[in-house]
Amino acid sequence: MELFKTYKLWPIEPVKGLGCRVWDKAGVEYLDLYGGHAVISVGHCHPKYLASLTSQAGKLGFYSNAVENSLQVTLAHKLGEICGYPDYNLFLCNSGAEANENAMKLASFATGRSKVLACTKAFHGRTSGAVAVTDNPKIQSPFNKTPNVEFIPLNDIASLEAKLATKEFAAVIIEGIQGVAGIWEPTEAFLKAARAACEKYGSLLIMDEVQSGMGRTGFFYAHQKWGVKADIISMAKGLGNGFPIGAIIINPALEATYGMLGTTFGGNHLACAAAISVLDIMKEEHLMENAAEVGNYLMDKLKGNKAVKQLRGRGLMIGIELSPGYENLRDRLLFEKHIFTGGAGANVIRLLPPLCITKADADIFIKSFNELTA
Ligand code: PLP
């Protein structure tokens, strides 16, 4: 059997990791400014994280969601404490797409409405509902396309208000910062208008913080910079530091009925052990603060380089839009300087490193970037 072709692969296989570094089979060391696609939050193979996972694996790896699981309760308390939404309720699942599916399903149940409003260029995942609110015709099959989803341009307040005024929409779903599209931020005015219009017309505000959440921007969730509160927030990626876990947190005003949401694997013992240790490490090592500090440092050092057409983003979610002529820079960073970065189209380099990155690591990147663009 061969693998089904999904991604165009780089000819490199990382087999070992530590902190912000990975090593390939030949022992070549790479600086990881990609974080395995914004997933590695507390660093590769953090000893405390490993101890938590291996100790739980030796006790109980899995049991059904039909019985009590105090690890889920502990996770809910710790997440509530660190994320700034202590009174919200937690539902656990396995991925970002699943988190968004559950968010939209819940909004539809709660409002009795079937439509969801989304933003152009958005990416919310690849399962049916999540891809339906993803503005990418290449990955949306005829099966996923539905009249229940409408798109408005990101930051277009007039379109947003006009759509929600129809009172047909259960929710509007917005990324904390659009990642896959190349790091585009919703403005303060747009998010505040979304909050107000949801209030006025009976819709719910869903913030997708799958990529921008978990402290990456220096705030636990990117939207918190603007003091706006969402009704449902989806997350995944950094929550498990590589162990698959997804989650939504839910406004307590939204009542659950038994059977409305469910999952076999979501919130299993190993996933909870991983996420609990991630939150503990984030707190103990001040990783949110570090994300803000090293992120600002990187942005400052990149300013003025002629290869940089525009710098976007916040904290450790940085988009470097390249000037024409630098389309192969990402490949050169990897193959010549052994630095992993993320991409977005041909001309945006995305920096999504582990939140434990140091200024010394940032300097290594800046030196390599300057050398390749001199
Ligand atoms: N939402 C956002 C903003 C994402 O960036 C992603 C993945 O890149 C997803 C949802 C989907 O997450 P997953 O791949 O875990 O299903």
Task: Set down the secondary structure blueprint.
Layout (H helix, E strand, L loop, with lengths): L13 E5 L2 E4 L4 E4 L2 H4 L8 H13 L10 H14 L5 E5 L2 H16 L3 E5 L8 H5 L16 E4 L4 H8 L4 E7 L12 H14 L2 E5 L23 E4 L10 E5 L18 H16 L2 H16 L5 E7 L2 E6 L6 H9 L1 E2 L1 E3 L3 E4 L7 H15 L1
Parallel strand pairs: 3-13, 5-6, 5-7, 7-8, 8-9
Antiparallel strand pairs: 1-2, 2-3, 4-10, 9-10, 11-12, 12-15, 14-15
Helix pairs in contact: 2-8, 3-8, 6-7, 9-11, 10-11
The chain binds pyridoxal-5'-phosphate.
Pyridoxal-5'-phosphate (PLP) binds next to helix 4.
Give a verbal description of the structure.
The chain is 35% helix and 19% strand. The chain has eleven helices and 15 strands. The strands form three sheets. Strands 4-10-9-8-7-5-6 form a seven-stranded mixed β-sheet, with helices on both faces. It has a four-stranded mixed β-sheet with strand order 1-2-3-13. Strand 5, helix 5 and strand 6 form a beta-alpha-beta unit. The radius of gyration is 20 Å and the shape is globular. It starts with 13 loop residues before the first strand and ends with a helix. The mean pLDDT is 97. The structure holds pyridoxal-5'-phosphate. The site of pyridoxal-5'-phosphate has 14 residues, from helix 4.
